[in-house]
Write a structure and sequence with these properties.
The complex is a heterodimer of chains A (about 575) and B (about 450).
Chain A: H1 23-52, H2 68-99, H3 101-116, H4 123-133, H5 139-166, H6 170-178, H7 183-217, E1 219-222, E2 225-228, H8 232-242, H9 245-274, H10 291-298, H11 300-328, H12 335-364, H13 368-405, H14 407-422, H15 425-439, H16 443-469, H17 472-480, H18 485-519, E3 521-524, E4 527-530, H19 534-544, H20 547-578
Antiparallel strand pairs in A: 1-2, 3-4
Helix pairs in contact in A: 2-3, 2-5, 2-7, 3-5, 4-5, 5-7, 7-9, 8-9, 8-15, 9-10, 13-14, 13-16, 13-18, 13-19, 13-20, 15-16, 16-18, 18-19, 18-20, 19-20
Chain B: E1 6-16, E2 22-33, E3 38-42, H1 49-57, E4 64-69, E5 72-73, E6 81-84, H2 96-106, H3 111-124, H4 140-152, E7 158-162, H5 170-185, E8 193-198, H6 201-207, E9 210-215, E10 220-226, H7 238-252, H8 287-299, E11 303-305, H9 306-313, H10 317-329, E12 333-336, E13 339-342, H11 344-351, H12 354-368, H13 370-381, E14 386-388, H14 390-397, H15 402-418, E15 422-425, E16 430-433
Parallel strand pairs in B: 3-8, 3-9, 6-7, 7-8
Antiparallel strand pairs in B: 1-2, 1-4, 4-5, 9-10, 11-13, 12-13, 14-16, 15-16
Helix pairs in contact in B: 2-3, 2-4, 3-4, 6-7, 8-10, 8-11, 11-12, 12-13, 14-15
Classes of the chains: A mainly alpha (about 575), B alpha/beta (about 450).
Chain lengths: ~575, ~450
């Protein structure tokens, strides 16, 4: 048992960190933290001013590396705002779906469908709507980008929160009920903590996905209109367009730096902090740690802030809800609330019906050749996604198993792979395309490379995890029985990594369909590179402002993705869960 | 006796199915909890002990009848009670102190007051020094101490305990039990009554002033009596053993209400035929366990007192009774007044080699177990000798609750596969006839 827990009684406000020595060091950290906070505030203020500034349809993106920090800040802020929106939406949506059985029946299948719709096809519609909403301010385009990132981030988070709430152990729920927890206490003391770990991991995945979309939507053309937002994505695209290799290196370097910093300053501390929310009965030996979290915990200023401001605030909030709970306990359900709920439901039904009839009207406007294009496009993209998955699996399975079986190799390879994977594929697209053009490859096969770029990592990481999960005694048994190499793969390794491989392939397949929208159609140096494919159709339709075709192609892609999920991946999942689980 | 704190009037719990059929979990039951007493609720698994506890605490509403709190209906409110859970149900992200404070926050106690009360209670259960520890740093016994502190800190009128010691090892459980008793007897516990659900017979006789024994299918009160041995009780005393023996008799004699010892000594008639219930309920025992039990009995000249067996094997009722019931159902053993004795078939089963054991089991199963006979006949009638499991689940559905259907089916699957009556494919979820079964040697050959 940890020695550190044998502390004297914790008296009000005196946290366990107060036992830390290093007073002088702490003053320095206080100063650094204060300065950092101030600069973040300044940057936000600065960015906010441009957001509210007049709409400028022709933002010039400079290739000057000194502008990069500012561009990085712009991109970061977009991601941050979109993430906060996603989190708020997640909490509300998950909560309602988990506790309202009537709503649940609609909300969860809806989530499943929304997850399958390729986000990038939302781009034109969202942008036009936002620009129409704020025609005179830059904030319109910004909001468009943020909303787009939001739609890319939110679904898996909402799903994670919902399923966490649904899986809270019955005993724990009953304890909360028998001890009369009110709504607020229930939420803060056991629902949110219980869901915390799932939320943290899904947030990380979502934000990584957010970079992917942000890079794509910072600079794009819609019919005759050219939308540009200052940011890392637009910088890279501009650099690639101009063939400026030096600027490209600078851009990619800053991108990697930002992602590594984000990992060190945000995700590692959050993961280390979230460790206490694990539902484990005994303390695990291998606990995630973070230097940054230790610095924050050592800061006397923050401890004082916690004691003087946050604790009393929490206390007042809690007591407020206790009193409210006591007074509302006997009240019957309020009539106006019931009717408001019904009214919202009715409005939603009417809106959906209207949208469906309008959509059908739009779809009937398409002619035969366009339908044929959709079908051949779907076929071509399907083959490309398949090829990307097969190629991805072909190199990641042996590599992943080698890394997973060899701890020494894993220590070197894993961080490298993580950095490589963290660079959003869309940021690299212009560069890869540039190379492809130089060596004379067409986009027909080249787009497979682009798809591979974004999706292979999901497979690799899952295969590594799967190989690590194969128990050593099984490996020893296969040595003992002198399995041949083929036997080893067939009887031990492939069945062992199967569930992980499937998880990786599912994620990769979803990502590949989405990426096809940017991979099959590209504008570089005023030239358009394109190939046959559903993704190309979507991009071309939004480029030309052909909304009938855009809608039709988006629907086709969603249908294909949902069908493949139902017919292939779900069955594979079931097989993995029933036959290939390593359980005792 | 003073006035009842909680009174259950004809409470009943059932689940309605789509076709209007009702699965009864608890038959209409009257029960009351009075101040100054420890009430022990005993019963085999599936007798609805936990369901009854949840209805008494207001956590779950009875399907009919009502629960009164000081003569007033509860109406969905949670009265001033606490529960100590088998799984502890602590919040792993809160420290010991925060866990104990949580119920006080819910009741609106100010920071200083709840701090004082929580610290005092942590001290009472012997956990001082661990205030800032997280539950995962504590052993099982210490976790349950936190569970007690959290339950007692709100000074509940009735303290409910749902198998509070079953997740602990034998020694820790014994230690906690005696400390609990000490707190209670020395009036250090801010509660006026205790209601403890258990499947450990000795635990009930050791702690309780009054024991209620439940029967199952559906759950109902089989016996309700006082234990008039002064505390602290000696486990080896004849009176103690008489109560233990009596409870075993009650539990193993399904349809007969035996009188309590001391009132009219156990003179009731024996050898009464088992009453057929609506549908034969399989005890959840594994063939391997039954075989082991038979071998054990064979080593003791074929007969033994149940409570002695349980004591020696340190098995709870929940573990031992299903095996005993299964042996009786298969005709391998007979019960007389809490004694279990092997039959010739049982002895043969215990002593045979693996293949012969299977053959004997197969014969007994087909003879005595209606469900397995039904499966065998259905498979024979089908041309392709295979059928989906849904068919049998639907039959079970008409008689048991969803969880019980699951267990019944699993047990039938276990027995049937062991006896090679059928085979089962878990992917297609189909049962099919085992061709090899016809070549299994008959028991007569040996």
């Amino acid at each position: 048992m940890a020695r550190g827990t044998w502390q004297p009684i914790q008296i009000l406000g005196k946290g366990p960190w107060s036992l830390l020595p290093a007073q002088t060091w702490s003053v320095l950290t206080d100063f650094v933290i204060f300065a950092a906070g101030l600069s973040v505030f300044y940057v936000i203020l600065l960015l906010g001013r441009t957001w509210l500034g007049p709409f400028n349809p022709h933002v010039e993106i400079s290739r000057d590396p000194t502008k990069l920090p500012m561009y990085a800040a712009y991109s970061l802020l977009r991601i941050a705002v979109a993430y906060v929106l996603s989190l708020a939406f997640t909490l509300v949506y998950g909560y309602v779906a988990a506790y309202n059985p009537k709503a649940e029946r609609i909300m969860i299948p809806l989530l499943d469908i929304l997850q399958s719709i390729p986000v990038l096809s939302f781009l034109p519609g969202v942008m036009l709507a936002m620009v129409a909403l704020f025609p005179h301010h830059q904030i319109g385009v910004e909001m468009g980008a943020i909303l787009l990132i939001f739609t890319g981030q939110v679904w898996n988070m909402a799903f994670s929160f919902y399923s966490s709430l649904k899986s809270i152990p019955r005993d724990m729920r009953e304890a909360a009920k028998i001890y009369r927890f009110n709504w607020y206490q229930r939420f803060t003391q056991f629902e949110l903590p219980y869901a915390a770990i799932g939320l943290v991991w899904n947030s990380m995945m979502s934000v990584a996905g957010g970079w992917f979309f942000l890079m794509a939507c910072e600079m794009f053309v819609l019919g005759s209109r050219d939308f540009r937002l200052p940011g890392l994505g637009s910088y890279l695209q501009t650099a690639a367009s101009a063939g400026d290799t030096q600027a490209i290196f600078w851009g990619v370097g800053v991108m990697i730096l930002v992602i590594v910093l984000l990992d060190q300053i945000v995700w590692r501390p959050v993961i280390a902090w979230a460790e206490k929310f694990k539902m484990e009965q005994v303390e695990s030996a291998d606990v995630p740690r973070s230097w940054f979290l230790n610095v924050i915990r050592g800061s006397r200023g923050l401890i004082r802030l916690r004691k003087r401001v946050i604790r009393p605030l929490q206390e007042r909030l809690t007591m407020h809800f206790v009193r409210q709970h006591d007074s509302t306990e006997d009240a019957p359900p309020v009539l106006w609330k019931v009717w408001t709920g019904r009214a919202i439901a009715a409005i939603a039904v009417v809106a959906v019906l209207y949208a469906v009839t309008r959509a059908i009207a739009m779809l009937t406007g398409l002619d035969g050749s366009e339908y044929r294009e959709l079908l051949t496009g779907a076929g071509a993209t399907f083959l490309r996604v398949l090829a990307a998955l097969v190629i991805g699996a072909a190199w990641t399975i042996p590599a992943g198993v080698a890394i997973g079986f060899n701890p020494k190799l894993a220590r070197v390879a894993q961080p490298l792979a993580q950095i490589a994977a963290s660079v959003p594929a869309t940021a690299l697209f212009p560069i890869v395309l540039l190379v492809l053009i130089r060596i004379g490859g067409g986009l027909g096969l080249g787009s497979i490379v682009l798809l591979l770029l974004g999706t292979q990592w999901y497979i690799l990481f899952n295969v590594i995890a799967g190989a690590m999960a194969i128990p050593t005694d099984l490996r020893e048994a296969s040595d003992l029985f002198k399995f041949t190499r083929a036997q080893r793969w067939r009887k031990l390794i492939l069945p062992g990594i199967f569930p992980y491989l499937i998880t990786g392939l599912v994620t990769a397949s979803g990502g590949a369909w989405n990426a096809s929208i940017v991979a099959e159609y590209f504008r570089l140096k005023d030239k358009t590179y394109t190939t046959v494919g559903l993704g190309a159709t979507i991009s071309r339709a939004s480029d030309a402002g052909n909304f009938d075709l855009l809608l039709a192609s988006t629907i086709v892609m969603a249908i294909v993705v949902v069908t493949v999920n139902r017919l292939v991946w779900r069955r594979m999942y079931r097989l993995a869960a029933t036959r290939y689980t390593l359980e005792t | 006796m003073s006035e009842a704190i909680i009174q259950a009037c004809a409470v009943e719990k059932y689940y309605s199915q789509a076709d209007g059929n009702r699965i009864e979990v608890i038959a209409p039951t009257d029960l009351s909890i009075s101040p100054g007493k420890i009430v022990g609720l005993l019963g085999p698994s599936g007798s609805g002990k936990s369901t009854l506890l949840r209805m008494l605490t207001g956590l779950s509403k009875p399907s009919s009848g009502q629960v009164l709190w000081h003569h007033k209906p509860m109406d969905g409110h949670i009265p001033n009670v606490s529960i100590v859970f088998q799984s502890f149900a602590l919040f792993p992200w809160l420290t010991v102190l925060e866990n104990v404070e949580a119920p006080l926050i819910a009741r609106g106690a100010g920071a200083i007051e709840r701090h004082k009360r929580a610290l005092k209670m942590i001290d009472t259960v012997g956990l001082d020094g661990f205030e800032t520890a997280y539950p995962k740093e504590l052993s099982g016994g210490m976790k349950q101490r936190v569970g007690f502190a959290r339950a007692l800190v709100v000074e509940p009128e009735v303290l409910f305990m749902d198998e509070p010691f079953s997740a602990l090892d034998v020694l820790t459980a014994e230690n906690l039990r005696s400390e609990l008793l000490e707190l209670w007897l020395n009036k250090k516990m801010p509660t006026t009554a205790i209601f403890i659900v258990t499947h450990n017979i000795e635990e009930a006789v050791l702690l309780a002033d009054r024991v209620i024994v439940l029967g199952r299918n559906p759950g109902r009160i089989r016996s309700d009596f006082e234990i008039d041995i002064p505390q602290y009780r000696d486990r080896k005393s004849p009176r103690f053993l008489a109560y233990v023996d009596y409870i075993y008799k009650t539990l193993t004699r399904p349809e007969q209400e035996a009188p309590a010892p001391g009132k009219t000594a156990g003179q009731s008639a024996n050898g009464q035929p088992r009453m057929r219930t609506k549908f034969q309920m399989l005890p959840h025992a594994r063939p391997g366990g039954i075989a082991g039990f038979m071998e054990l009995l064979a080593d003791r000249d074929g007969s033994e007192d149940l409570y002695k067996l349980a004591d020696e094997l340190s098995m709870d009722v929940d573990d031992l009774l299903p095996i005993v019931d299964a042996s009786v159902m298969l005709g391998f053993a007979e019960l007389h007044e809490g004694d279990v004795a092997t039959t010739p078939e049982g002895r043969a089963f215990g002593e045979a080699d693996i293949q012969t054991q299977k053959a004997i089991f197969r014969k007994a199963a087909l003879e005595h177990v209606a469900l397995l006979r039904l499966i065998e006949n259905t498979l024979h009638a089908k041309r392709d000798r295979a059928i989906g499991e849904e068919f049998f689940r639907d039959i079970l559905d008409e008689h048991f609750s969803a969880a019980e259907v699951e267990r019944q089916f699993e047990t039938a699957l276990n027995w049937g596969r062991y006896a090679e009556i059928f085979d089962y494919d878990s992917e297609s979820k189909r049962l099919f006839h085992n061709e090899e079964a016809d070549t299994v040697p008959s028991p007569g050959n040996h």
